[in-house]
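R.M. (postdoc): so does anyone remember the format we settled on? I'll just put the structure tokens first.
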């Protein structure tokens, strides 16, 4: 890491809050979204394959599952991020009002918060005064609310990222079931899906600093169970001539 602004106390491999933390969160969300797409679309197409050999039906079902899942993920993400953004903006507006109407109380508050972080009284007061002079709202947003007023997450961006992640994950089982000849389509799909889930499990464990072995196994087992259950249900329905 060659970030000079952090000086010599910045240890290697030690994430500094903010930019890196945000990027890691986005990457983690993308892996989870892709994982969702793999599992749900794999369960869907393998279930349909239990009932029918018709490639057109498999393609239709898989594509509908891909679109339904990715739009549902995007809508959910849009709603959740919008709500979070609304409450962040309300908190910032309140802070702005308080700074305008009670600047002295706000300076005392900022001083107390900095003391709480470990600064001595005099130093906390001086830092609070300088931060207030430089950009009072930003100082309160960061120290008091823990948000960066210029880096509020965009709901549309979050929704788009979820849509893309789920779509990318869904494409794998969809292509694996539709492209190969009928007699190998199931084994190809199962192997591709399990390999992708092992990879996703490894990735999310690495990002969370957890031992990857168990995460890989659990993740693959979840997908295998989903495919086994839907394949069983599809086969029963297919055999019953539904
Ligand atoms: Zn404040």
């Amino acid at each position: 890491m060659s970030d000079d602004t952090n000086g010599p106390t910045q240890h290697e491999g030690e994430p500094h809050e903010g930019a890196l933390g945000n990027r890691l969160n986005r990457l983690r969300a993308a892996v989870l979204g892709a994982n969702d797409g793999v599992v749900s679309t794999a369960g869907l197409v393998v279930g349909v394959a239990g009932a029918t050999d018709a490639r057109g039906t498999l393609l239709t079902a898989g594509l509908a599952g891909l679109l339904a899942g990715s739009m549902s993920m995007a809508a959910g993400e849009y709603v959740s991020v919008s709500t979070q953004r609304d409450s962040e903006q309300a908190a910032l507006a309140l802070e702005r009002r308080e700074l305008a109407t009670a600047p002295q109380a706000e300076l005392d508050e900022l001083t107390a918060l900095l003391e709480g972080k470990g600064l001595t009284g005099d130093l906390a007061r001086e830092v609070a005064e300088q931060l207030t002079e430089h950009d009072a709202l930003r100082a309160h947003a960061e120290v008091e609310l823990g948000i960066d007023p210029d880096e509020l997450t965009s709901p549309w961006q979050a929704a788009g990222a979820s849509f893309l992640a789920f779509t990318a994950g869904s494409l794998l089982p969809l292509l694996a079931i539709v492209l190969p000849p009928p007699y190998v389509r199931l084994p190809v799909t199962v192997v591709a899906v399990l390999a992708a889930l092992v990879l996703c499990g490894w990735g999310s464990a690495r990002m969370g600093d957890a031992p990857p072995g168990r995460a890989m196994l659990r993740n693959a087992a979840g997908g295998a169970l989903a495919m086994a259950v839907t394949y069983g249900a599809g086969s029963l329905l297919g055999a019953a001539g539904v």
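R.M.: ...and that's the designed sequence above, right after the tokens. Also worth knowing: The chain is about 80% helix and 0% strand. The longest helix spans residues 55-101.
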